[in-house]
Here is the input.
Amino acid sequence: NAFRDGAAYVDGAFVPVGEARISILDTGFSRSDVTYDVVAVWNGAFFRLEDHLERFERSCRTLRLSPPYDRAEIARILVQLVRSSRLRSAYVETICTRGVPPPGSRDPRTFENSFFAYAIPYVWIVPDASTTGTMDAVIARTVQRIPVTSVDPTVKNFHWADLTRGLYEAYDRGATHPILLDADGNVTEGPGYNVFAVSDGTLLTPAAGVLEGITRRTVLELAEADGIPVSVGPFGEDRLRDAVEMFATSTAGGVMPIVTLDGAPIGDGAVGPTTRHLRERYWAAHADTRYLTPVDYGDV
Ligand code: PMP
Here is the structure.
């Protein structure tokens, strides 16, 4: 199977992911003029596909990008990618770029926007995050999250210079993952994940200045269903220092326990009961048909 390592959709054709090529002139590459979304396939079914497609549409609209396909056509492309790769668990990315400028033009209104997509084996921000994997976090000191007045964090984008700088700061400090603050000292997010804390029996996560992660939404829904008090609003790093538990959330790994902050253990340094419970509930939700779009692989 030539598609075993993944499948891509480029210029209207399905190709093995290793053979997918885009133009060097594409402004998604040369200007980060692009939006994207990532949806997971788990055990042969998309998880919350409609929510991801809806967020992708909203991101495109906000950036004034018009992908050449509507939502139903994109869904069909994604299903076909997974089917041809035969992957049962996959990381499926949709991308819309401003595209290639017409010769001699820099007027973005004249560009024909491009659509790309691919499916590759499921990606983990933290190895074994569904069972034993944990994060050692630092609060980034050398970099702040890019201001929301410059780049709207609710639109998925590749303006990741701040997040990547934070990641290297974390490595330099002997940790694995950064948490970035905004200019007012409010907690935001990290490279590819939202951040939660458990403090005074309440689950805290920032309301604004962050991507409205679908995993974050799932965790908030599960917490509410289970009667866990939730507070969605601004808070500073002091609330993280008071926290007895912390975790991060992403489509690429689910609920990922954070066990140290700036080198000090959170709580007793073990994965806490609320985090453990929500991680289990998150993976159990992958069997809840309300969230699933099964892929027909055409197997015998
Ligand atoms: N924040 C940022 C900056 C992200 O890029 C991502 C996902 N890639 C998230 C949060 C988590 O979002 P989701 O749960 O929808 O994957």
